[in-house]
């Protein structure tokens, strides 16, 4: 397991995501295409199914960090969750999510929010904090990714309720690396099974999905 940072990428820049969501808004308006689900629907559905069966109440406050087109929140709403908030630092992503989900699930709330710059006091506390790809994008930031990751981890810790759960899915970090990154602030609850592949005699996963509990001091 390496302590090295990821190579920087345009996927770590706001400009990239703004261009991508402008295109997805146009595709939705012209063709009804709701856009891509980051890491695929199977990956998202495994996390959604776990949340639905982990014993939390359906009125538990849930926040989706980097909500994209709102897929995760709309599926949770379909399962009866009522206190849902999606945030993204791209206004274009919020526009897309509102267009895609608000007719069927008007109770889902959306807000433009930059987890590296904005105060969480405007959001409140959450029983579930969900991330699928946002931590990855932050780690690809060309400008001081280590500091950005540390700020993100602190912000996640601060927005969790005392018994809150943080659920993260990553395609760039292994389960062991995620546990190491978050170990000072969060305690491992469980790793969710993900599809595995074998290459060169070694077994690996395409993505890692990990559930953490808040450590209270």
Automatic annotation (TrEMBL):
Q: What is the protein's major site of localization?
A: cytoplasm
Q: Which domain of life is it from?
A: Eukaryota
In terms of SUPFAM superfamilies, this protein maps to:
S-adenosyl-L-methionine-dependent methyltransferases
Q: Name one GO molecular function term.
A: protein-lysine N-methyltransferase activity
Per UniProt, the keywords (alphabetical) are: Cytoplasm, Methyltransferase, S-adenosyl-L-methionine, Transferase
According to its UniProt entry, the protein's GO biological process terms are: methylation
Q: Where is it found, in Gene Ontology cellular component terms?
A: cytoplasm
Q: Which residues form the Methyltransferase domain?
A: 58-192
The record's subcellular location field reads: Cytoplasm
The EC designation for this entry is: 2.1.1.-
InterPro entries the record matches:
Efm4/METTL10, Methyltranfer_dom, SAM-dependent_MTases_sf
Q: Does the keyword Transferase apply?
A: yes
According to its UniProt entry, the function of this protein is described as: S-adenosyl-L-methionine-dependent protein-lysine N-methyltransferase that methylates elongation factor 1-alpha.
The record's similarity note reads: Belongs to the class I-like SAM-binding methyltransferase superfamily. EFM4 family.
Tell me what this protein is called. Answer: Protein-lysine N-methyltransferase B5X24_HaOG208517
Biological source species = Helicoverpa armigera
């Amino acid at each position: 397991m390496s302590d090295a940072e990821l190579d920087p990428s345009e996927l770590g820049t706001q400009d990239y995501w703004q261009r991508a969501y402008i295109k997805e808004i146009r595709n939705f308006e012209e063709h009804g295409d709701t856009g891509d689900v980051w890491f695929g629907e199977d990956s998202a559905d495994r996390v959604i199914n776990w949340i639905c069966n982990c014993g939390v109440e359906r009125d538990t406050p849930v926040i989706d960090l980097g909500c994209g087109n709102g897929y995760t929140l709309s599926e949770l709403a379909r399962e009866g969750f009522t206190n849902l908030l999606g945030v993204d630092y791209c206004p274009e992503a919020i526009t897309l999510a509102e267009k895609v989900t608000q007719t069927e699930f008007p109770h889902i709330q959306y807000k433009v929010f930059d987890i590296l710059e904005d105060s969480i006091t405007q959001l409140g506390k959450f029983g579930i904090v969900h991330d699928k790809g946002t931590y990855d994008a932050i780690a690809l930031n060309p400008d001081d990714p280590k500091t950005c990751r540390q700020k993100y981890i602190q912000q996640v810790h601060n927005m969790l309720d005392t018994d809150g759960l943080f659920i993260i899915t990553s395609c760039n970090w292994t389960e062991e690396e995620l546990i190491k990154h978050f170990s000072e602030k969060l305690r491992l609850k469980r790793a969710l099974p993900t599809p595995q592949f074998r290459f060169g005699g070694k077994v690996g996963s395409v993505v890692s999905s990990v559930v953490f509990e808040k450590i209270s001091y």
